[in-house]
Amino acid sequence: MTDRRFLLLCAGEVLVVAVGNLAAALILQVIVLGAFLDDRRGYWAFIPAAALFAAVIAASGTILLPLLALAAALGCGYLALTLQDYRLTLWAGGEA
Amino acid sequence: MIRPTRTTGGVAALALALTAVAILIDNPAAALAAGSLAIFLFWRAWRFSRDFQTLAASLAIEREVDRTIIRQGTEVHVRVKVDLAVPPGMEVRVRDIPPAVAVGDAPPSLPRKTVAYTIRLMAPGKTAFGGVALEASDAYFSHNLVIRRPTTPSLRVFPVGTAETSGKKEAGVRDGEVDRRSTLEGPSVRGFRLYQVGDGPGRIDWKLSARRGTLYVRELTGLEAGAPLVAVDIPTREGSDPEVFARYSMVVCDAVEGAIESRVGCSLLVIAGGEILRFLPWTHDVRKALSTLGGLAPVEPRAPLYRAPGPAILAARARLPGREEGGEGTYIARLGGVLAAFAAESTSPFAVTVGKALDRVEASELHLYTLLNQGDTSHLLQVAHQAKIRGMQVVLLAPPGSPVAIPGVDAVEVI
Fold first, then answer.
1. Domain check: are B144 and B257 in the same one?
2. CB contact under 8 A, A33 and B36
């Protein structure tokens, strides 16, 4: 990614924050990140996850708890990816 | 583990900045932007991981070497082509991993491109390639993985230094290799392996360990060194399977060819029971050696040795302990004494002839090939005994599960 594209992404995020409305911000965020991508293969998997996060923010009425919950969920996801990578390393080493 | 690229770092920094803004001004849209960027990065990591697994599973390698039986220090030319199903948006580099004891590295290459490189194998013994290093990256993540398969073809490296033992001019030496005897007597290095708990620190090869980033220990030359005399025992016709004999002949021919290619020649002794059928002292000519082995077939036993055991067997029988007290034990003890007295006097024309052949070739190893499918193995005992008298190492090469044990054999290898 070039620096120019990254600056455009930053500008897009400023626009998302400036919109104010959560639903409009979600739609704009999906469009901005979609435009940011060269290869949108599997992009459908991202959209429901972002929508779910937006719904949690809207339902909770706060921002701190949803962010903490997201951090915990992503931490679990990171552990799952690490485990997957460990299994791949074992397979590559001929142990599995 | 997958590693983030500069782009991922930038997006993560942006997400953190948006998180700070969201907390400071209590803005849900900023929190959504920050969270969705984090989700976006996780989605990319998940997709990259899945693509990389698909990529690794699709690995297919075609590796060719110009020869698989080589002399220590000579050049080996390797051609390798790696085939991969590369997902869109992913850049892939592959690098072949030469054997651990090789000097020289393979250059990185693109998938489906043939790469040629040259290595030198510096330690004798059997060795194999280390696999393939796979490096893949997209805009957000990169990953390096060493896949330890396939390691074929395996290579067999023979040590230098056997030319002078024959006292003959070295032939067939290529690539300007140097074949000179070490000034230090003692075992040389046959190969290297990874350090295991309990290995002596003195056996660690520090140069190789520093180069490879992990500890390697030296394996010293055992039976691998020295010039061989290949003795081939032709089985009897009774109970002989033509297919088994054909395979046996092939194994022997391969061994002789390999010995001639890797060393400076070998000697051949073909026996059948108590007879020497053919004898070929020191040859460097593969055709001559193979013609000596040509036309051999199972034979009718004409001179079994079980009634003329020779000194080796008599001495072995004389050492039989008396198992029981009383009459039988006393009898066995007396018989042992009588046999011991005659052991030194007993002569066997076969043993004498084999001894003369061994004296003539001055070999340091005897590779005794046999199918061990016959009842009388006294001729093998005598051959092994004659070799041991002359301080030779005896390696018995027989099919798996052979029940007969030959005294004096230093190692048994399955053929």
1. no
2. yes
Q: Which candidate from A13, A42, A88 shows the least CB-CB separation from B33?
A: A13
pLDDT of residue B13 exceeding 90, the answer is yes
* The total number of residues written for chain B in this structure: 415
Classify each residue of B160-195 as buried b or exposed e, where b means 16 or more C-beta atoms within 10 Å of its C-beta: bbbbebbeeebeeeeeeeebeeeeeeeebbbbbeeb
Nearest residue, CB atoms, B33 vs list A25, A74, A89: A25
The CATH number of the domain holding residue B116 is 2.60.40.10
**A91: closest chain B residue by CA:** B147
- As given in the structure block, the two tokens for residue B39 are 């989700």
Helices (H), B223-299: 242-262, 286-293
* B169 pLDDT more than 60: no
H/E segment holding residue B280: strand B275-283
d(CA B415, CA B251): 7
Give the C-alpha separation, B122 to B124, whole Å.
7
Q: pLDDT tens digits, residue range B347-366?
A: 777 888 888 888 877 777 88
Residue B286, number of CB atoms within 10 A of its CB: 17
Cα separation, B130 vs B53, in Å, equals: 20
Hunting for tokens 């396939």 — which residue is that? Answer: B150
* Same structural domain, B258 and B389: yes
- B121 lies in the same domain as B241: no
Which CA distances in Å does B191 have to A2, B98, B131, B410?
A: 50, 15, 18, 20
Length of chain A: 96
Among A23-37, B112-126, B269-283, B379-393, name the most confident range: A23-37
Query: HSE (CB half, 13 Å, CA atoms) of B11?
Result: 26
Residues pairing with B4 in the sheet: B141
Contact check, Cβ <8 Å, B34/A67: yes
ipTM tops the 0.95 cut: no
Whether pTM > 0.80 for this model: the answer is no
Q: Do A42 and B43 touch (CB under 8 A)?
A: yes
pLDDT of residue B208: 83
Domain enclosing residue B211, as ranges: 162-220
CATH label of the domain that carries residue B235? 3.40.50.410
Q: Highest mean pLDDT: which of B80-89, B158-167, B212-221, B290-299?
A: B80-89
Sign of the CA dihedral B220, B414, B264, B74? negative
CB–CB of B40/A33 below 8 Å? Answer: yes
